[in-house]
Specification:
The chain contains 20 helices and 14 strands. With 554 residues, it is an alpha/beta fold. The protein folds into three domains: 4-94, 2-Layer Sandwich (Gyrase A, domain 2), CATH 3.30.1360.70; 128-257 and 364-420, Rossmann fold (3-Layer(aba) Sandwich); 423-546, Isoleucyl-tRNA Synthetase, Domain 1 (Orthogonal Bundle). The strands form four sheets. The chain has a five-stranded parallel β-sheet with strand order 6-5-4-10-11, with helices on both faces. The protein has a three-stranded antiparallel β-sheet with strand order 1-3-2. Strand 2 (79-85) and strand 3 (89-94) form a beta hairpin. The longest helix has 26 residues, at 220-245. The two termini are 34 Å apart. A motif ('HIGH' region) lies at residues 131-141. Its EC number is 6.1.1.19. Keywords: Aminoacyl-tRNA synthetase, ATP-binding, Cytoplasm, Ligase, Nucleotide-binding, Protein biosynthesis. It comes from Candidatus Planktophila vernalis. It is found in: Cytoplasm.
């Protein structure tokens, strides 16, 4: 299913091919034709700067190039007018009736409208959150839980084969310290220095003992690992429960231990050795990551033979690639800026293209305000506020939408008071209300027995400027989804929905959708109702990509 934009791009390319064949233009046809929506609708429905791009290789004035293209586009089906503006911009106005056919396209495609094939055939491993199984998920994890899940949906909508993966950091000193903290709480002993604090540790200790009363009687050498493993299993299960409530789901829960137990670390080291980037110095084994832009070489195996955490990083990346993933996306916290260079260096050392095979997204911090003051502490974890506590305050929809609507590389502030209000300053309410408002209009139409059926649709009825603006906004949705996927920026979908909701409210204010009083239903009423229905469908599709509900009533 080609979109209006794709059809217009194809028409421009066809015109250029004719111009090149006739010899009136020379150079090379760009692979992509950039089209933009003019802010002023007097400048048409779409504008392109293609003439300015082609002027220099063609050896012509940009306006002359624009004139050649305009002459060839004139009379093209679906285009009513082509103008030249400024130094050589081409403004294109679509035939109103043809543009209105978008309504039928959307209502026939239903949930598939907006999906595309830009990433078809690409296998993507999307790893996010990957929290230590040593405590509740906190605010930083919450941002990734929302953004990561939405990014997975957007990538899938663009045609990619996506697997969402949670890397369980279940190996190392932090696991031993976690187990020792729970054990100390169970035995009534002081928590170890630098151990884990918070009410959740005491809760875990009670549950571990309740499930296995004899655990406290085990010899010390067996009691330590028994507490560690029991607490680990309970905490991981709790993280999974909370994420499920939040609507965030994973295809793979990958244990760090499995890398070591299955020989993946040794296998990865051998592969890197064959690539020629491993060297030994002072009894340690190193990876020469400085060859690929890292600020220093990295130790894989210490002089005492113990493996570094970096060795797990290298093995994990190689493991992902050997599972058949073309692109590995890592979503890391604000304190992981230093990882970008070393992860890309790992890819390069493994013989991959670090600009294609690996993408690293760094998320910035989230601040929560309530009653004009910053909320810093979690009652349960004793540290920063948890995912579960945030959901208790504002609900899943408000939390997810707000966390997604900002670019991840910018710090953000969540105002709890605003998110509790049913007003237009609450962005999730603003978008959901547009959906519910349309649902109410369609229910009213049903009560009035007005047909909302494509068989009765007359696209020539939709000629009002507000209708045209709304149609233009609906036509943009597939491009928004594609750009959100390609740029790894799901916030683009949220911002688009806010603009669409505003455009719909403007249309509804100026265009009467239902008949008044004794007025008989007309083809115009039917056409406008179908335009409403198509808008409702696009809002729902967009909210689905964010993992946010589309209520029928509010």
């Amino acid at each position: 299913m080609s979109t209006q934009v794709e059809q217009l791009e194809a028409a421009i390319k066809a015109a250029l091919e004719r111009a090149f064949k006739a010899g009136s233009l020379s150079g090379q046809i760009p692979e992509a034709i950039k089209l933009e929506r003019p802010k002023d609708r007097d400048h048409g429905d779409y504008a392109t700067s293609i003439a300015l791009q082609l002027a220099k290789p063609a050896g012509k004035n940009p306006r002359d190039v624009a004139q050649i293209i305009c002459d060839l586009l004139a009379g093209t089906e679906g285009i009513s007018k082509v103008d030249i503006a400024g130094p050589g911009f081409i403004n294109i106005t679509l035939n109103r009736a043809d543009q209105a056919e978008l309504v039928a396209t959307i209502l026939k495609a239903t949930k598939d409208y907006g999906k595309g094939s830009a990433l078809a055939g690409v296998r993507i491993n999307l790893e996010f959150i990957s929290a230590n199984p040593t405590g509740p998920l906190h605010l930083g994890h919450t941002r990734w839980a929302a953004v990561g899940d939405s990014l997975g949906r957007v990538l899938s909508a663009a045609g990619a084969d996506v697997k969402r993966e949670f890397y369980i950091n279940d190996r190392g000193n932090q696991m031993d310290l976690f187990g020792a903290s729970v054990e100390a709480a169970a035995l009534g002993n002081p928590i170890p220095e630098n151990g884990y604090q918070g009410a959740y540790i005491a809760d875990l200790a009670k549950e571990v003992v309740a499930r296995n009363a004899s655990i406290t009687s085990l010899p010390e050498g067996k009691r330590h690992p028994a507490f560690r493993e029991a607490a680990y299993a309970l905490q991981l299960k709790d993280q999974q429960r909370v994420l499920d409530t939040f609507g965030t789901h994973f295809d793979v829960w990958f244990s760090e231990r499995s890398l070591h137990d299955q020989g993946a670390v040794e296998h990865g080291l051998e592969k890197l050795r064959k690539q020629g980037h491993v060297f030994e110095e002072e009894g340690a084994i190193w990876l020469r990551t400085t060859d690929f832009g890292d600020d220093k070489d990295r130790v894989l195996t210490k002089s005492d033979g113990s493996l570094t955490y970096f060795s797990s990083d290298t093995a994990y990346y190689i493991n992902k690639r050997e599972r058949g993933f073309d692109i590995c996306i890592y979503m890391l916290g604000a304190d992981h800026h230093g990882y970008v260079g070393r992860l890309k260096a790992i890819a390069a050392c493994a013989g991959d293209d670090p600009e294609y095979n690996i993408h690293v997204l760094i998320g910035q911090l989230v601040k929560i305000m309530e009653g004009g003051e910053e909320v810093k502490l979690s009652k349960r974890a004793g540290t920063i506020i948890t995912l579960e506590e945030l959901v208790e305050k504002v609900g899943v929809d408000a939390a997810r939408y707000t966390l997604i609507r900002y670019p991840v590389d910018t710090p953000m502030v969540m105002d709890i008071d605003i998110l509790k209000r049913n007003t237009n300053e609450n962005p999730v309410y603003y978008v959901q209300y547009a959906h519910a408002r349309i649902a109410a209009v369609l229910r009213n139409a049903d009560e009035l027995k007005i047909p909302v059926d494509l068989a009765a649709f007359d696209s020539s009825q939709l000629v009002h400027d507000r209708e045209n603006q709304l149609l233009g906004a609906l036509a943009e949705f597939p491009r928004v989804v594609q750009s959100a996927a390609e740029l790894r920026q799901p916030h683009r979908v949220a911002r688009y929905l806010e603009e669409l909701a505003g455009t719909y409210h403007g249309f509804y204010a100026d265009c009467r959708v239902l008949p008044m009083g004794e007025e008989n239903p007309s083809p115009l009423h039917t056409a406008r109702l179908l335009l409403c229905a198509s808008t409702k469908q696009v809002i729902k599709n967009g909210l689905d990509l964010l993992g946010v509900s589309a209520p029928e009533r509010m």
